[in-house]
Amino acid sequence: MTARLDGRPAVRVTGLKKSFRELDVLRGVDFDVAPGSIFALLGSNGAGKTTVVRILSTLLKADAGTALVDGFDVAAEAAEVRQAISLTGQFAAVDEVLSGRENLVLVAQLRRVKEPGRTADALLEQFGLSESGGRRAGTYSGGMRRRLDIAMSLIGNPPVIVLDEPTTGLDPQGRLEVWAMIRQLAGQGTSVLLTTQYLDEAEQLADRIAILHQGKIIANGTLAELKQLMPPATAEYVEKQPTLEEVFLAIIGSGAGTPSRDTGTPPEHQQQGEKP
């Protein structure tokens, strides 16, 4: 599908409000997502992130305000919005009985894409899943399942993709795999709206970050702009220590340096005949 933005935001949300009975979930939310950018909607559980996503994807009607996706109004032009947007939820929506390739072919057929087999093969290649494309998706790791899920959401070339907490439940290596895929999407011109509760995820990926708190956007800007909201830092000498994530990835990346399960002693330091 060809975007019709003509310089306008890929997503524009203005004065969005939503209540459930007496609970005000959204209390006037405003933000824009620039074309081809990664926009992070950052907030804790219950902040209203998923409610925004459901409204943008036409699954829920707002009580007030407007939302445009690729220039289409989510309330008045729902069918056009569904063509322009693709939603990937918090958990990978793949059929675990089917192979990775069969999942992609099925979605391509449902979306009436020409040559679904060729489309599936191209996406398997793009997302590094060619070698495992014939395996049942149920045998995939969490990161592979999430990559397959994102690949499925790209069938039909939607100009806007919404990723609702895409790394929930993934291990550190799986998170890095998904981060790489998200950067690749934006690099190809896809506009990405990312909701997350992970501060490091927003910091690593987003061109712009909005902080949603108690149903309102309380800050919106680039990482540099948000850092300027803090008081000036005091210069101190601090020895940089590796993060747990860096330690984890360094260990699993080198089999020779993997500690022993019982003692933590590297295998080359163990006595001959000693059980690991």
Q: Any overview of this molecule?
A:
This protein is α/β, with parallel strands linked by helices and 276 residues long. The chain folds into two domains: 11-94 and 140-227, P-loop containing nucleotide triphosphate hydrolases (Rossmann fold, 3-Layer(aba) Sandwich); 240-276, no CATH class. 31% of the residues lie in helices and 22% in strands. The chain has helices at residues 49-56, 78-84, 100-110, 116-126, 142-153, 172-187, 199-205, 223-227, 244-252; strands spanning 11-20, 23-33, 38-42, 64-69, 72-73, 85-88, 160-164, 191-196, 208-213, 216-221. A hairpin with a 2-residue loop joins β4 and β5 (72-73). The radius of gyration is 22 Å and the shape is globular.
Low-confidence stretches: 255-276
Cα-to-Cα separation, first versus last residue: 56 Å
How are helices and strands ordered from N to C?
Answer: EEEHEEHEHHHEHEHEEHH
Count, helices: 9
Beta-strand level of the residues, as a percent range? Answer: 15-25%
Helix content: 25-40%
Radius of gyration: 22 Å
Q: What profile does the largest beta sheet have?
A: 6 strands, mixed
CATH architecture label name of the largest domain: 3-Layer(aba) Sandwich
Q: Give the count of structural domains.
A: 2
State the total count of DSSP E strands.
10
Which key terms come to mind for this protein?
276 residues; alpha/beta; Rossmann fold; six-stranded mixed sheet; four-stranded antiparallel sheet; disordered C terminus
Give me a quick take on this structure.
This protein has two domains: 11-94 and 140-227, Rossmann fold (3-Layer(aba) Sandwich); 240-276, no CATH class. The chain is of the alpha/beta class.
